## 1
Amino acid sequence: MARFLWGSGTSAFQTEGAWDQEGKGTSVWDHYTHSAVSGNSATETANVASDSYTHWEEDVKALELLGVRSYSFSLSWPRLFPDGNARSEPNTAAVEHYSRLIERLLQKKIEPIVTLHHWDLPQVLQERYGGWKNNTLVGLFEEYAAFCFHTFGSRVRYWLTMHNPYLVAVHGYGTGVHAPGEAGGPSGSLIVAHNLIRAHAKAWHTYNAHYRPTQKGKVSIVLGSHWVEPQRGQATAANVALCQQSIEAVLGWFANPIFGDGDYPVSLKIKHGALLPTFSAEEKLWVRKTADFFALSFGPNNLRLGRNLVQYGQTVTPDLRRILSWIKLEYGDPRVLVAEGGWFSEASVLQGERRTGEEKNMTIKFDGVQVFGYSAWSLVDGFEWNYGYTVRRGLFYIDFSQPNRTRTPKTSAQYYQRVVADNGFLSDETFREVKGRFPCDFHWGIADSTLQVRRQEDDFAAENAK
């Protein structure tokens, strides 16, 4: 029986830094954070960030300390190809950097899980073609993917084509909150999503036809989601149906073409009408089943977005177990990798990881979901997109005011270390007996782990008031 892939992860833009060093080109996120296009978003840049390009060996040591069996990281497209064109000569320094990282991971018996594209599109492709709005990028991405498969594939068993394309489509080209900062509304998001799905499928087919026979790896795409359910006492059939539509509007938008029937959910067709691009009959057959396992992102970004998608009387909740069960029922019981799991904190301690072991155990044992890996996000504190450095998600704390960017394990890292060592079963939990009394005015209470949802029109008004 294969060992469960406990792991942790990072993305290139959030942690690498060295934004203009050793031949790296500009990404859309470099341009976005350096220009006025970001508006009221984060004023910080990721010029140095966690400086993982320089301190990659310390990241590997952090992984060793955790005792994890996998490391999920992304390749920087503009670092490998500053002009975005994989038919040109690659940046040798970048190829050597990623080769060294992969080799060191394998030496330490840590499985590399490599993402081809985690949002940092080469800026030149945005300027020349309009980025992901242009279907030319489908072919360009396929060529970039083929280069990566050819160059690193003999040492990589797990590939992820792109990370959470929903946020790229909605925030990058719909609301403009993410790079490249285009507020094209639903029509822009729908076109971008269509091209992202087709780019993923094309890369998968390339691997399947030309690299799988010898490399014997697996390829998927990381899809993000929230979980929504009726509030207590409001579980009517109509409300349940609306919850289903809410999940389809996020996860189903990308998962149904790839893991379902090759087409968009009916609820999206009804909602968007003629704005929604269409797959031909041939394309439906070509797109469906272009993933060797289901990779899920379940973090705060999707949960925040989920709040604006639900109706009154519903609740968005960070319940990983339920979304995994939904995936099992909806898409035929696929093998699942939780490619991003975790929460954020404004302090030095990451909250929300203490349920990791028991939640995976219940999901696998009682729900029968075929979860084969979990990546605690993230390994180190980094640049959190439009939130800059105001929130932290790392298991290891980084003082961004210090030039050496020392990695310091948080209490969550120590806890996760024990989860990994016990394979999710914390058998050695010990509690010291403490006696005493609380003050008379101590406020006892109870809390719920759900995010209560206001009326949709109130959320819309609040968003537009910012």
## 2
Amino acid sequence: MYYNGVYHLFYQYNPKGSTMNNIVWAHSVSKDLINWINLEPAIYPSKPFDKYGTWSGSATILPGNKPIILYTGVVDANMTQVQNYAVPANLSDPYLREWNKPDNNPLIVPDISITKTQFRDPTTAWMGKDGHWRIVVGSSRNRGGLAILYRSRNFMKWIKAEHPLHSSAKTGNWECPDFFPVSLQGSNGLDASYNGKYVKYVLKNSLPVAAFEYYTIGTYDAKQDRYIPDNTSVDGWKGLRLDYGIFYASKSFYDPSKDRRIVWGWSYELDGLPNNENNKGWAGIQAIPRKVWLDFSGKQLVQWPIEELKTLRKQNVRLSNKRLDNGEKIEVKGITASQADVEVTFSFSSLDKAEPFDPSWADLYAQDVCAIKGSTVPGGLGPFGLATLASQNLEEYTPVFFRVFKAQENFKVLMCSDATRSTTQHYNAMCKPSFAGYVDVDLVDKKLSLRSLIDNSVVESFGAGGKLCITSRAYPTLAIHDKAHLFAFNNGTEMITIETLDAWSMDTPKIN
């Protein structure tokens, strides 16, 4: 949340180790979302209503500029979940270090219609025109996802609505739901309680079985308190994702200081080596905060790293009008390739060499097609892109690339981030997947843009100006520190031009 000039990040954290136990609400503050001060935990198990766990939730700023946190408490060894609240102990403390959990908790207890072990992660509250507050809590019923709606006049007494805000069959339990309005008129963000015109709504859910998230765009019937996805939004496993890689449990908030909505997700580890987290002393990272808004088509979201990230840019290298023939690669020298920000625009003169899209792939996830048509598989228009976290001789690299296919009626642009060659380490528990999605982009200008943020064990990529995002994790042993390299490559028969490429070494933010 943003409060009195300070950004507050609360996150699930184990102060006693790097495994999923002893979870508290860690608390860090920042003036710029880049440099952070770590504080003592804000919420931790201490009362009967959260003795067995203080799980995720959300913050809301109440009238009178008073912040309040709603969070899930676990009350017994059977993992029964309830919804609690906490308030700052001292509003004059600029960092709000201490939080109180009043004794009138819990505010919400699951009734007999609710699966009490799948009832968590309350959203930021919004106020309707009737003056009543509303929140959504994630749950499931009959293996379908459920966004349970509650209303309150005073934020203390909550009543469950007769029907959920929304549900979807066969999607499993919904974790970390997020529900917010987006403007149809530009990229500015909207407060959760905005009730003006020219808006759509977004409902995002995290699916723990698959460890990814999907979202839909639709309309919110405020009188009936129902959310209805547009018929252009797939409401299920193959729906749109905020990120097609390792990105989970995301949460958005409205930032009034810059009139924007920011979404922030968590990227978990894939190295899988027994006790590796304990040896490292940490597990899981926050991705870069992203500004999020509705694409002009009204059919999907666009995301872009927050503008403050540019303050970390150091030395710059620029390439322009560089040809990449079939099988060619160009090294981007003069930067620290293990910690870099890269923006590139590729162009091509023709779509004629685009490969036909195999109809048998229609039911596959894009990442399955990426596994079949990887960065080294010769193609027509692509594969072309960036080889990040690369060793000098490409024993290790994580390519982020495009491949253009000709479908029956149009072109399909596949964007991949492929970790299969990211490290020479190998053991059964390590996961080195291909991640991919299809970019909804008009190729009339015969250009594709890519931005990749590279930071030692993570490559966070934004295709076509943020229409598609992929976060990959990589654990190289050769391509580390000053031994990491960055290449632009083309393995397609159609010649590719690097119109412009800007790369910056990135500074390290200040933590405490």
## 3
Amino acid sequence: METLTEQNGIFPKLNVEEEPELGATEVESMCMNCHENGITRLLLTQIPFYKEVVIMSFSCDHCGYENNEIQPGGEIAQKGITIRTVIANVRDLNRRVIKSDFSSIRIEELDFEIPAQSQKGEVTTVEGIIDRVVRGLEQDQSVRRIQHPEAAEQIDTFIVNLQALKDIERPFTLTISDISGNSFVENPNAPQKDPATEISHFQRTKEQNHLLGIFAHDEVTDEPNKVTAECIKLENEVPEEVNSLLKPIREGAWPLEELQGEVLQFQTNCPECSAACDTNMKVTTIPHFKEVVIMATVCDNCGLRTNEVKPGGGIEEQGVKIEVTVRGRIDFARDVLKSESCSLYIRELECEVGAGALGGRFTTIEGLLTAMREQLVESTGMFMDSNDKDTKERMDKFFGELDAAIGGNKQLTIVMDDPTGNSYVQSLNDDGTPDTALRIIRYHRSYDQNEELGLNDMKTENYGEEQEEEVVVADEAEKVES
């Protein structure tokens, strides 16, 4: 494992052709079935189009018991995820599914739900989920038929209904809700859009954060009110000699012109190999748009180079949908700012890239298409199954059409949809107004979009009053106690 870590990082990519031996670690552990010692194999890897995972497989030579589970190896996602998939044919039963410990699974037609944390995380299929439920229900049926015959009969009827789902006599809906955001359902039509799947994200509640082990600073302190009062006091008066890592910038101490001309640098960990590296950050202005923050990371350990763009200011009052027709080389040179919340759709290729897939980028139309192609090429191991010729032919056809478009031999219509309104495409007109090949539509966000962005419960006026009132109450309580 040490040699593997030095060459490819802690989580090597899942590529059988280049890395036939990923170096699984074997650990002797107790079998929970016969209580003898068995072998647990651990594999740290990256699943294409998903994230880093730890795959665990246990086998016992004494009783033959086998078990496998999966644990996310990366960070907990910022938001929870809900995946709703309509299973309509046998091919849908073979969709690969990644579920974490915090995933709840619901089958709408049977009004059946598997609660979160009742099963371990695993890599399986839709059919595998049904089979595991059936095995669990059949486990104690022989005893139930003697002690509780009525309950056993009801369970037998339900098992028959579950087994009937695999015959696909009628479509059924599988819904996965995961507060950790670490669940995934395969798209068999990739890179095209999956018409049978709806994916939405949601903000976690305080209770759900606690369940994941995420706590705010004042929640793990014995005296939260005292800490809040001290923080507000420090905001008003911070002496120069305070030896802290982050110090507030006093008004007038650093003019905005100097900030825009300065390249700031701070230490981070490489997203590829987790080694310590530096990130450079600079504030700049895009003409006819707004200020943006450009961040670039270079890792000396693995050579990774990444760049990311964050729009300056807050979320705009309206969302924006930008349609640009790519007719030739002049359109390929248009500057593009794609925010993290912006989804991308190419009509002629029927290809959709979800929000956050390519991250925030400041590039050109050509750079955007090239980055999308590189990401697909690096992750083709997800699709290239030696027994699935249809998928391989579909991917080869898609890459051919994409290469023709990048080479300027195919006209494209690119649609960028950003509910935050923080995306931009350069106009060919000098005054910044949309030209004939550029169409900009502004729209009011829906309630669900505001909910996903966390705007419905956001207080933008007088938000400091409640905090000040809490501090006053804490001070008065402290006086009474003294």
